[in-house]
Amino acid sequence: MNDFVAWFQHNGGVLDTSMMAIADFPGSGRGAVALQDIPENHTIFTLPRSLTLSTQTSTLPSAFGFDAWRKHKLHKGWVGLILCMMWEEAQGHQGKWVTYLASLPTQFDTPIFWSNEELQELQGTAVVDKIGRDEAERDYHEKLTPAIKTRPDLFPSDQIDTWYTLHRYHITGSRILSRSFNVERWEGQVEQDAEHITEEDSNEDTRANTSIGSAMDVDDSGHGVEASSDRDSDDEEIEDTSDIAMVPMADILNARYDSVNAKLFYEKHHLQMVTTKPIKAGEQIFNTYGDLPNSDLLRRYGYVDLIPCAHLKGALGNPQDIVEVRADLVVDVVCGDVSIGETCRQRIEWWLDEGGDDVFIIDANPILPAALISFIRLLLLTQDEWEKIREKGRPPKAKFDLQVSLLLRKTFEMRLTSYQSDLEVDAKLLAFESLTLNKRHAIVVRLGEKQILAGALETLRLMDATLSDVGSKGKRRVASGTTSGEKSKKARH
Predict the structure, then answer these.
(1) Which of 24, 36, 18, 20 is nearest to 280 (CA)?
(2) Residue 101: inside a domain, yes or no?
């Protein structure tokens, strides 16, 4: 890493070498360590914006031609940034970022590189449908490959099999997914970039590019971003990635749940990593990826977090773990999986048109999602009730009762059947030391999801008991009143 540090400093980066060093940490790879006690609000390093690598700083889009760049749809999604990085690496010692790119990993433990047999271990989890291998390969074949064939002056044919292969495309995409930052631009840069927007795309892209950075703006989204926001937009395709950048030195910092002690701040001409709390000598310096569930950590970064969790009574897990319950599973449970009637179909379409969720998130919180309960009640409405709801334009209230509880229980139990093993089996499997890393990670992810579902079922059991108790008390009160009434009636006679 000496060459990398020298390159960083030669190109305008400033590193406080008395405070921070790069080191290897067992189990988490390369990271940053405090060489002495570091106070809060101390700047560990700074770098000029020009040292970040993005479609804005690479010269490739300009050399390729902005109109041609957009014609090949390289301005949307990941493919343009991936191509910029591949091209910069292919420049060898003539390239500005060659030393930095040489310091980046070439192997990843993320599921996109797993075998089909290994991926079977993730069956039922939130990871499988989000890996994106097919989508990435479609972009490679339909966008990148046709684009580079039009410019042999930029992409010589004898370099294609070395620098522009599908495998290298996946490696580069994984580098971006695991290490990139959302680097907000300042007003002047946004206006300059807007000059390259064609008239037909101006309305769409101007809206996408109005993120204006200001002095000391905190990067709350962490690195490894897939969009300019948090995990709620994680599944949406990035239409504009011009704010996504590789940030040398900043991407060396690791992350761990609830451990962030440094953040990346923006100023007009440079970025700086500043401590957000005191750090003791010998401690690791952590930036944030955001506190994510293990399914996202594994998919993006190739690792999982295990810490004592309150919802597991102190056992190891991830407090941020979630389970995704698809709306179509709920529909199958409520409406039947043979055929969805026209009335049910109308309600589903209305729900989606009104912005309702098509996936419901269950977490360790004992309060079940109101949207899920509301959706079930929508499907249960009588025709008259449905007509009134549609006229008002508001979904039903999330009223919980024993009927809803029964349907929720069936839904969660059906969701549990999507995994290839049960909770107890997975808990025992983790005790085996001979497990491969990928299999261990898969078990941790699916076990965490099953524990969330088990917790939700326990919540339902407790709520059912409360409803039954209230109901039985009500019946006793009614019975008692009836008896008194009968006695009074008899007395009158």
Answers:
(1) 36
(2) yes
